[in-house]
Amino acid sequence: MATSAARAGATEAQIINQTGHKSLPVLRRYIERGSLFTDNAAAKLGL
């Protein structure tokens, strides 16, 4: 949810209010991990 919301343009404050994360570093890790599935070389090739 956090990754999808960030991609859709939601701010970190909006996301953290919805998810209840206690810190920005933790929230940012979720967003980074989610991007591993789409922001990679294989995705650019349509794999």
Number of domains: 1
Q: Give the number of helices.
A: 4
List the secondary-structure elements in sequence, H or E: HHHH
Spans of at least 5 consecutive residues whose pLDDT stays below 50 are none
Provide the β-strand percentage band: under 5%
Question: How many β-strand runs?
Answer: 0
Helix content: 55-70%
Shape estimate: elongated
Radius of gyration: 12 Å
| Main beta-sheet strand count, sense and barrel state | none
- Rounded mean pLDDT is 88
Decide which structural class fits the backbone: mainly alpha
How far is it from the N-terminal to the C-terminal residue, by CA?
23 Å
Architecture blueprint of SSEs:
Elements: H1 2-7, H2 12-19, H3 24-35, H4 41-44
Question: Could you name the key traits of this structure?
Answer:
mainly alpha, 4 helices, 47 residues
Characterise the protein shown here.
The longest helix is centred in the middle third of the chain and has 12 residues, at 24-35. This protein has helices at residues 2-7, 12-19, 24-35, 41-44. It is mainly α. The protein has one domain (2-44).
Briefly characterize the structure.
The chain has 47 residues and is mainly α. It has helices at 2-7, 12-19, 24-35, 41-44.
